[in-house]
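Run ADF-H domain-containing protein through structure prediction, thanks.
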Amino acid sequence: MAFLRSCSNASSGMGVAGDCKETFLELQRKKTHRYVIFKIDEKQKAVVVEKTGGATESYDDFIASLPENDCRYAIYDFDFVTEENCQKSKIFFVAWSPSVSRIRAKMLYATSKDRFRRELDGIHYEIQATDPSELDLDVLRDRAH
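Sure, done. The structure for ADF-H domain-containing protein is below.
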């Protein structure tokens, strides 16, 4: 029985460091951050906060924070104005998995994604991206409206 339990734990992916949820809540409720980049720390066997972007940082700053050749999870707080001229905000979860990243990294991020995302309550949209063109600002605009 213990063997089955350890196998199921292994297949559920990485744990989540406590500050991940706290940092997400700072973005969601306090608007302290424009974005948060998360990475899997294999030594800790957990998803950890790698970088936060200040509330005044741009979408280009966010895109520049994603590595060209490695996977990451990210949260982006997208502000926009509706056709009725109302200021709105939607939170996007980005699963960044560039096609040039290592297969092991792609598998690790893919198997851990659902568990990690469940920890972050209040995400409006999810984007799976393998190339920067899939994260064009127009993609977010189209999804948010």
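Residues 2-144 form a domain with the Severin fold (CATH 3.40.20.10).
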